[in-house]
Write a structure and sequence with these properties.
This protein is an alpha+beta fold. The protein contains six helices and 19 strands. The N and C termini lie far apart (about 50 Å). It binds zinc ion (ZN) (2 copies).
Length: about 270
């Protein structure tokens, strides 16, 4: 029995004798099946072809980026707090060197993932760090392709984690989309870890909002307003997105608000 992994999105599946019929994550309108057709890999293969590169983004925040690109190409983050560390989002490859590097940062106390595109091999990550809980929003529970006791679903609008961290459900790109607020980040001015919503634009004073990024399907005005409203109670000056180089260095909350206004104006809402 093998836990097959979809090459295009990095989602790992419950163990089967043979490769799954298809990948529901890629068959969904928000993603796509690889241009060469559905392909599968395994963690054993990743260990031969990939490694994870760590980078200190700011004090107590380290990004984890697979090289070469794995799945969708996102990075994960280790957020350090005085009550333990949280892995924010996830990347598909995981090897001994990665576990050692995370242990040197103090290990993990919990994991949280913004949305199903980054669930990837999160159960393997949890098991490698003593079966720490994996927090996802109940609205996206149906997208968990490798069910396991470590996956903990929560409901409602916010969920406090350890060390002052808070998960905030924004909805939008996915019904259960969540972001992570880290108040101690940016030298105490606050950081938002957003995954791919809000999405940091090439002009990094701006962010954007899409229902599908690869297929360029926009979010509607009501959903965009809900994202902004859900972030209202939280102070943050800096925002990190899922992909390398994606950071709004300062004044990020105002950037989110003005970006939402611009977007809604452009779509005529
Ligand atoms: Zn897939
Ligand atoms: Zn996504």
């Amino acid at each position: 029995m093998t836990h097959f992994i979809c090459v295009t999105c990095g989602t790992q599946y419950a163990a089967t004798e043979r490769e799954p019929e298809g990948c529901p994550v890629c068959l969904d309108e928000r993603q796509y099946v690889g241009h060469g057709g559905q392909e599968w890999t395994t963690m054993e293969e990743y260990r031969k072809t990939h490694k994870n590169v760590f980078h200190e983004e700011e004090p107590d925040l380290h990004s984890v980026l697979p090289q070469p690109k794995a799945g969708i190409g996102q990075r994960a983050f280790v957020v350090r707090t005085n009550e333990g560390n949280v892995l924010w989002d996830c990347v598909p490859p995981l090897d001994g060197a990665t576990v050692e590097a995370v242990e040197r940062l103090g290990g993990l106390a919990a994991i949280a993932v913004s949305h199903p595109h980054y669930y990837t091999t999160v159960v393997e990550w949890s098991h490698a760090f003593g079966k720490v809980p994996v927090h996802i929003h109940e609205n996206d529970a149906k997208w968990v392709m490798r069910p396991d006791d470590v996956v903990k679903v929560w409901g409602g609008d916010t969920r406090p984690l350890l060390g002052g961290l808070t998960l905030v459900k924004t909805g939008g790109h996915f019904d259960g989309f969540q972001v992570l607020h880290w108040p101690a980040g940016a030298a105490g001015k606050g950081v938002l870890l957003s995954g791919d919503q809000p999405y940091v634009c090439q002009d990094r004073k701006w962010v954007s909002f899409m229902w599908s990024y690869p297929n360029l399907i926009p979010l509607g005005p009501a959903a965009i307003r809900r994202v902004v409203k859900s972030l209202e109670p939280f102070a943050f000056d800096r925002l990190y997105g899922a992909f390398p180089g994606q950071v709004v260095v300062a004044d990020a909350k105002a950037a989110v608000e003005r970006s939402a206004d611009r977007y809604v104006r452009r779509i005529g809402g």
